[in-house]
Amino acid sequence: MESILKYTGKYKFEADNGRNHTTKYSSKGLEGGDENAATPMEIMLQSVAACSGIDVVTILGKKRKNIESLEITITGERRDEHPQIFTKAHLHYVLKSDNAELKDLNRSVELSQDKYCGASAMFKLAGAEVTWSAELL
To answer: Which of 15, 28, 43, 128 is deepest in the core (most CB within 10 A)?
Structure first.
């Protein structure tokens, strides 16, 4: 796996993953910068939710559960001192399905968090507390 990042000015970078997908990064609060893109730490937090979300959708699909919608809200806390790593993250999954039960969602999230999600595992191995909750609409 390889990505190439190019500085585009005003504290912004563009990353290319080699498959024609571009991610833009920026910084907030730096003089001369702007907020036209997410910060690297925001993207890192979002990546945990995206990684787990892909797992959950895959697992529910294998169980033949319909997904009308799945929304994941992730919140994170970072320490004050540098480097300002994440110390906590909480994911809240909200599934709308006509044939899934809460136990299906809970089991899918458990498998994602305990076995499959590499992004979440990286947070945990770095010492962050990762918790989750789930609800079925």
So the answer is: 128
Length of the chain measured in residues: 137
DSSP state of 32: T
Rounded to whole angstroms, how far apart are CA atoms 94 and 102? 10
Segments making up each domain of the chain, as ranges: 1-38, 40-136
Tell me the whole-structure pTM to 2 decimals. 0.91
40-136 CATH: 3.30.300.20
Max Cα–Cα distance, the chain, nearest Å = 52
Q: How far apart are CA 5 and CA 118, in angstroms?
A: 22
Q: Distance between CA atoms of 67 and 106, rounded to whole angstroms?
A: 14
Note the pLDDT tens digit of each residue in 35-84: 788 999 999 999 999 999 999 999 999 999 999 999 999 999 999 999 99
Look-up: residue for tokens 């994170």?
A: 76
pLDDT band at residue 88, thresholds of 50, 70 and 90?
A: very high
User: How far apart (Å, rounded) are the C-alpha atoms in residues 131 and 112?
Assistant: 12
Tell me what pLDDT residue 27 has: 86
